[in-house]
What we know:
Blueprint: E1 9-10, E2 15-17, H1 26-31, E3 37-41, E4 44-49, H2 51-56, H3 62-65, E5 73-74, H4 79-89, E6 93-97, E7 103-108, H5 109-135, H6 143-158, E8 163-168, E9 174-180, H7 189-198
Parallel strand pairs: 2-3, 5-6
Antiparallel strand pairs: 1-7, 3-4, 6-7, 8-9
Helix pairs in contact: 5-6
Amino acid sequence: MIVTARDLLTDAVPRVPAEARPADYERELGAGRVAAFAVFDGDTFLGLAAPAAVVTFPQRIFADLCATASRPIAADTPLAEILREMDRHATSVLAVTGPDGRFLGVVSAARITELLLWQAESRLQGLRQVLATTVDLGADWTLDDVLQRVVDLAAQLTGAREGALELLDDEGAVAKRFSAGPVAAVPGFRRLSGAVLRGPGEG
């Protein structure tokens, strides 16, 4: 799964009129969850005002505080490109707009961190499941059951659409196959899997 800006939108973005002043939004700032203020002139999105600028200049209007150095990104922008844009413009927030230029929300470094931590925890949990499956041989499972479970969990853990484990006999022919997904439909799978199972320089 490719993570895009659409998946990373945060709701910690108050929308404010261009002529409003930060002093009118002390409650939002006090809550400590504001990634940025989205500044609008009517229905037109002008840019983002960072909380640091708002705190530093509470008497100035938002129109004077919104940054326009970085252009909004599209909703389908992949995570890798988002990180490059943040680094390029030395910012922790980017505005996201739709094909029609309509403001959709904001991607923040904090939201990205949350997602990466969640993914890491999910993968760690998957590893725990695989480990529990492979060591729990005291259960009423046959070896075939264990191997099938390992393939299923490995596919889930990696996000793969297909996965397989093949056992070869002494002649190098496939004796048993344990699969998750339509592996048989993947061109060249057997050739690739055979090379991996035998290892470089063998047969």
